[in-house]
Amino acid sequence: MPTIVVDVMPKAELLDPQGKAVSGAFARMGVESFTDVRIGKRFELTVDGEVTDEILAEARRIADEVLSNSVIEDVVAIEVVE
Over the stretch 5-27, which tens digit does the pLDDT of each residue have? Predict the structure, then answer.
């Protein structure tokens, strides 16, 4: 069964407190390879059958209206995984 994966991230201009906490943990662990951490959400929508243009359009609509808060988040990717 194919799966539609939707990735949602906080808007770039907003503070990401979870990302800052992880970044601080890296620093305490001595990890210096990464300069910033941003934490988002991943949704997996399983499709019974073929992913048509209509189903993909519905996934985009759901991503914008339900899975993300457009005030503070962006839908950054929608992809079909077989």
Answer: 999 999 999 999 999 999 999 99
The residue to which tokens 């934490």 are assigned: 39
82: amino acid identity, one letter: E
Place of tokens 């808007």: 11
CB 51 within 8 A of CB 69: no
**Radius of gyration (C-alpha) of the chain in whole angstroms:** 16
Q: Does an H or E element contain 77, and which?
A: strand 73-81
Distance CA 53, CA 77 (A): 16
Exposure string for 40-69, b = 16+ CB within 10 A, e = fewer: beebebeeeeebeeebeeebeebbeeebbe
The end-to-end CA distance of the chain, in Å, is: 7
